[in-house]
Specification:
The complex is a heterodimer of chains A (153) and B (164). Chain A is mainly α and 153 residues long. Chain A is built from 6 helices and 3 strands. By secondary structure, chain B is an alpha+beta fold. In chain B, strands 1-2-8-7-6-5-4-3 form an 8-stranded antiparallel sheet. In chain B, β7 and β8 form a beta hairpin. Classes of the chains: A mainly alpha (153), B alpha+beta (164). At the A-B interface, α1, α3 and α6 of A face β2, α1, α2, β8 and α4 of B.
Chain lengths: 153, 164
């Protein structure tokens, strides 16, 4: 989807994924606790947010089971040991943020995953990972340097 | 198949409080431990390009403190400090971790090392704030973020998922 495909860890990550939370300064991301970051994002947005939608364990289970493909509500209920009303409630929240899509086939309602909507989380994770990766790359280089100098131990 | 080298760091979110970082190095465990825990080494790699290490002190014993300060490209001072809770060379350190100037940004950081076939695996676990005391509202959240990051990756980034 429009993004350049490199080896999956591109150096230049798209910046357009979401507005920066207020007060977020350059350099903070790599040191900011994830809970704090997600907290900031969640506070800055509404409940119709992907982060909030997946903050609930059962909703993640619903997403998990839909990875295998499109499923009817009944199948989801069987897959997870949840009641039909519970599953319906979670499916509604997931539909509202666009993480799942529903279509009718006869009398059945079939749900499928909309993976593209997970991109904000994916992008956030990619940035966080990049920051750690850069630091550990430097450590790796330094280790190699030391070893070339003759195994100081 | 050991994924080492540039770009091989893996970051996972096992739950909503912890971050797990895994990286492998083609180096003996004792050397990796030293590079992680001796100030003369840490000061060589901790800060990035354009950043300037201002302070790097490490008192590597239980109850001992460490303090890292560096200046970012924009001249902002970043200060981290903490106290060692466990020191077991060359396999493990546990220390408190505080990013000064950001209340709530405190964690317990565990660094575990394991060597096999000449490759040393570093696992860093950052357990943020409440995780240390595990407040009741997070009980039963063990499974929590479980596979969501895997899920996200495998759906959007098949190559990244394959390397895991």
């Amino acid at each position: 989807m429009g993004s350049r495909e490199t080896n999956g860890r591109s150096r230049k990550r798209s910046r357009a994924y979401r507005p920066k939370p207020p007060g977020l300064r350059r350099g903070f991301l790599k040191h900011m606790p994830i809970s704090e970051y997600i907290g900031t994002v969640a506070r800055a947005s509404t409940t119709s947010d992907v982060f909030n939608a997946i903050a609930e364990t059962h909703r993640r289970e619903v997403l998990d089971t839909l990875i295998a493909g499109e499923k009817a509500v009944g199948t989801i209920v069987n897959d997870l040991s949840l009641s039909q009303p519970q599953v319906s409630k979670h499916l509604r929240v997931l539909s509202e943020v666009g993480l799942v899509r529903c279509r009718a086939e006869g009398r059945r309602r079939l749900y499928r995953l909309e993976p593209a909507r997970l991109r904000p989380l994916h992008d956030w994770l990619a940035k966080y990972e990049q920051a750690w990766n850069d630091r550990l790359d430097r450590m790796d280089d330094y280790l190699k340097e030391l070893q070339q100098q003759g195994e100081p131990q | 198949m050991t994924p080492t080298g540039h770009g091989s760091t893996v970051v996972e979110l096992p739950n909503d409080r912890d971050v797990l970082i895994t990286r492998q190095f083609e180096a003996p465990i004792a050397l990796v431990f030293d590079v992680l825990t001796k100030p003369e080494h840490v000061s060589k790699w901790f800060a990035g390009p354009g950043e300037e290490m201002k302070e790097c002190s490490i008192d590597l014993r239980v109850g001992g403190d460490y303090h890292f300060v560096f200046l970012t490209e924009d001249g902002i001072e970043m200060s981290f400090r903490g106290t060692y809770l466990e020191v077991e060379p060359p396999t493990r350190t546990v220390a408190t971790w505080l990013f000064e100037g950001r209340p709530g940004g405190d964690a317990v950081e565990s660094q575990d090392l394991h060597e096999a076939h000449g490759v040393t695996t570093l696992t860093v676990k950052l357990a943020f704030s409440d995780a240390a005391g595990r407040p009741t509202r997070f009980e039963g959240m063990q499974e929590s973020f479980d596979r969501i990051d895997d899920v996200v990756r495998s759906l959007l980034d098949p190559k990244a998922a394959v390397s895991r």
